[in-house]
Amino acid sequence: MKIILRIQRFNPETDDAPYYQEYTVSAAPTDRLLDALIHIKRFQDGSLAFRKSCAHGVCGSDAMRINGKDGLACKTLIKEVAEKDGDRITLTPLRHLPVQRDLIVDQDEFFQKYRSIKPFLINDEAVAEGERRQSQEERMRFDDTTNCILCAACYSACPILGENPDFLGPAAVAQAYRFLADTRDRGMAERRPVLDDPNGVWPCRNHFKCTESCPRGILITKRINQTKKMIRKEEKPTDQ
Amino acid sequence: MVHHFDTVIVGSGGAGLYAALEASERSRTAVLSKLYPVRSHTGAAQGGISAALGNVEEDKPEWHAYDTVKGGDYLVDQQAAKILTEEAVQAVYDLENRGLPFNRTPEGRIDQRRFGGHTRNFGEGPVRRACYAADRTGHMILQTLYQQCIKNQVAFFDEFQVVDLIMDGSTCGGVVAVELATGDLHVFGAKAVLFATGGFGRMFKITSNAFANTGDGPAVCARRGIPLMDMEFFQFHPTGILGLGILISEAVRGEGGILRNRDGERFMERYSPTLLDLAPRDIVSRSILTEVRAGKGIRGDRKIDDYVHLDATHLGRETLAAKLPDITSFCKTYLGVDPAEAPIPVLPTAHYAMGGIPTDVHGRVIMDRRGTIVDGLYAAGECACVSVHGANRLGTNSLLDLVVFGRRAGQHIGDYVKQADALPLSKDAPEAAREWIRRLTDGRSGPHGGHIMEEMQTAMMEKVGIYRNAGEMQQAVDAVKDLLARYLAVRVQDRGKQFNTDLLDTIELKSLLDLSLVTAASALNREESRGAHSREDFPDRDDDQWLKHTLAYLEGDDVRIDYKAVDTSIWEPKPRTY
Ligand SMILES: Cc1cc2nc3c(=O)[nH]c(=O)nc-3n(C[C@H](O)[C@H](O)[C@H](O)COP(=O)(O)OP(=O)(O)OC[C@H]3O[C@@H](n4cnc5c(N)ncnc54)[C@H](O)[C@@H]3O)c2cc1C
Ligand code: SF4
Ligand code: FES
After folding, report:
1. Distance B313 CA to ligand 1 centre (A)
2. A87-96 pLDDT, tens per residue?
3. Which fold has domain A108-235?
4. Is B281 marked active-site?
5. What ipTM was predicted for this assembly?
6. Residue B267 DSSP class
7. Alpha-carbon gap, residue A41 to A34, rounded angstroms
8. What is the B198 CA–ligand 1 centroid distance (Å)?
9. Which uninterrupted H or E stretch holds B88?
10. Whose Cα sits closest to atom 11 in ligand 1?
């Protein structure tokens, strides 16, 4: 199968503005979009810049916009996109983050916001016997959020960030939930100033774009709403 | 630009981050990583981390140590295995205390499951020793350690690719790195450098390893005169997704999955009557290949890419969802197969490097058969060889290796840098790297590295794979030497400085070529079969001649071989049956 990849190019050293370049590649039915990008880089144009590593959707390197939808190039099969949208596929970098080159964006701000919610277990109590106990049910309450690979697809998908670039963003709030909902964590007081802020959890208006985009199936919008509830009531959730 | 630190850690997977947590408490520490830390391949580890917690059935560190030694076909240094398995218990508790969300037993304890080669009472039968967080245990370890580094404000230099090591005689003085975002060359002077750059499965065509797994640490060290140990031992994991090599964790078999040939037969009954599908990986991979060669693969055409079935249909949707959700999703995404309904087509995939930079149990790098230490140079994780995996690693022992020896190295560094003096940095320190990059980017026309990469991967896969013989390995050595000669003409196409990933890929290609040469030459040299090194022309283990570690020195385009004794102070080598 022959497909045309229409890729947004930009090299700040030489280009005033981004432009599109087209590449024709032949793809096997099982090929991932990432395979096509690598083929271009190895055999057609060594200057094409994108990030990659694991090649099976677990490291978060290659989030990008694929025909206007945020996703991972390595978790997207070419034939599926082509069946849906035709054999010309447009690739652009993630939104809401500065483009550094071609499909590479600067993720600093995304990681700064992640760091700001103190994404680590907060608990100074001594542990009596080796491990802390946690029931299976308690463990499952925040299970999906532990899937996050910090790929920033949701950050790009979020319409709120288009209006308000200072919003914490979906991933950071979902990661705050991951700890707040963990029975072992005692960090509400420390995280509250960041979350209970006009740019914290409150700007979210349930567009669900983050949830749709998340390649790890995290119920982000639901977790944001549960976080809002916890902030109001200051207690942990009791269901999943 | 020149930076000065007490400690520089190269790599931010499990090993690098654990070392960083320890070292940064007591020394000025910088972590350099060519990937954002959370992108490291530790995040891909699925099945579990082993420790004899005994949470679901009786278990002891001593049994775990014995399994490790036997699993490694007695090439394991036994005191190191003892340390690994004794410190395992506290290491897993530490991870839990730091927030790692392990799956739990009904009593709320860390749950444990079966894994290949892990047994109760010295081989009586499988034991539940692998602690796990669904099938993303490595992801959770990486996240937890990164989170702790954020908490402790560890200094990261993200997307800095180390390309050279600074040595003065037998003392290490720092590293040279390219900053991806700018293309600038940086010199990091340090009293101690730890390499934790992970595996190098990208030598092979079909692999479970990430693109970033190019073995830069071992390659940089080898080019500076450090030997590499036991490089002939490379593990092929039995169950990679057909054609892609993406891993299907042994946890599938740990939960009850069964390998079947084209007749539906559970063929492991014939090869490993006691442990069946949970025999160590080298044995299962050979069994699969033997089935395929006998025309018992699913297609039955005896070709090298024929495959077998991994049947998990009887586990039930609930178990798959709770314990193997990612694997279920990989099968659906990449194969269009729902493992609850149909068997998964699998074949062996290049997975794990048992060999690497030789170290002692404090992570200090060793430079010869007498165990002479290189001052200030450390290694930990998959790029290192302690050696706790010997000729074949047991599943779940690598994540354990990262946290146990990553921590030990970090602690030792903390003490070492207190009493060590910084080497004066020579102005010429970055010159070799600068000259190399200048050549690759001098604007002359030359071939691109892409074809060389493909030819190398094919040669290594076909000739230094699961079954080996002298003729084919010699062909591989010759082929890689030829590719190394062709590499000299390679030029980078990208003319930019910022994010010139073409340049960085080309530098990585050199790492892989150097390590391919060392691997093929070490394999050709070892005239016996042991663990993952299985020779058709020398089918038996030969303890009289070969119960010793290989030390391979890269000298230009040649490899010089020496040896180092194996520590067998606890258990006498015995025939290895399961
Ligand atoms: C798919 C898969 C599943 C696995 N499952 C298990 C399991 O269930 N249990 C188990 O015990 N083991 C498992 N393993 C093995 C185990 O995960 C790895 O051996 C281990 O994670 C390696 O960790 P590491 O810290 O040594 O390296 P990595 O996590 O690979 O990290 C390497 C680091 O080095 C950096 N780096 C590399 N080169 C450079 C350079 N030139 N300059 C700067 N930085 C550099 C990278 O950026 C990265 O941060 C699995 C392996 C794979 C591939
Ligand atoms: S929540 Fe999902 S989309 Fe957002 S960063 Fe995490 S994995 Fe990516
Ligand atoms: S390359 Fe790792 S998520 Fe795509």
Report:
1. 30
2. 999 999 999 9
3. Fumarate Reductase Iron-sulfur Protein; Chain B, domain 2 (1.10.1060)
4. yes
5. 0.96
6. T
7. 11
8. 4
9. helix B78-97
10. B396
